[in-house]
Amino acid sequence: MRRLLVPLAAILVLAAGCAPARTGTLGPAPAGAPPTTGATPAPRVTTPATTTPRRPPPPASPTTTAPMVPDQPGRGGTITVQLWFTRDGRLTPTRRTLPATVATSRLALTELAAGPSRAEAAAGLTTRVPSGLQVVRIVDGLATLAPAAGFGDGGAAAVRLRRAQVVWTLTQFPTVRRVAFADAAPTGRGDYADLLPPIVVTGPAIGDRVTSPVTVTGSAEVFEATVSLRVLDAAGREVGTSFTTAACGSGCRGDYRATVGYRVAVTGPGTVEVYEVSPRDGSRVNVVAVPVVLVADT
Hints:
- Keywords: Signal.
- About 15% of the residues lie in helices and about 30% in strands.
- It has helices at about 1-20, 105-115, 120, 155-170, and strands spanning about 80-85, 90-100, 135-140, 140-145, 180, 200-205, 210, 215-220, 225-230, 240-245, 255-260, 270-275, 285-295.
- The chain has a five-stranded mixed beta sheet, with no helix packed on it. Strands 3-4-5 form a three-stranded mixed beta sheet, covered by helices on one side.
């Protein structure tokens, strides 16, 4: 009989090991657990819990990549807005850093009508937007504009390019997805995508002070998605080259981001060029030249 009990005990132990795991562990019940009905709870010995004081969350880091969000009124500061001007009949972006305001759409339209700076004008940028254009309201992502004198002048192509400037400028703000003009249906950025050049450079902007390596960003629709870059010094000498690929190639537009290093002896004017290498003859085509200030190596 004793010989039978030993294997039987072993079988019971193995069966217990194969049983599903029970949740929790043995020990005092968690604080706040309801007592078991019909049973006298066993006395428990508790010790004061050691708790770590809760720390307040760290302050948010300053946002440097979302220029469309202004500071709170009365706190000063600046805001950087993107303005879409025109060059050779196509849309071209630039930037302005101005005193912060809650009326960002009004600020952007005012700057758009004021036109390019001297350096931007020298690089070929112009504006077709007249002064006096105002946003009447913004509801559910739709910005409705009041008509402005001269906005419809110049023919259909000129008016469309003018509207494209306004739409691409206003839709940088998170509250605006489409724009309604007085005499037309609401439109968004996609309605004017054909007015973008093959290569768009969103950074650096004209006149920016850059250091090596300089980061270049934008979008492109080029052969095999290959975007080439170079840096020229004040004398036009090539002092740095690089290339990258856009997120989409021929037949579609994709974003790109690349860095290009350079070496100059003294800080002074220079140029960042972004271009496509022609598949026919290897020449540089669709060149976008951005005049900048090159900071010398330290």
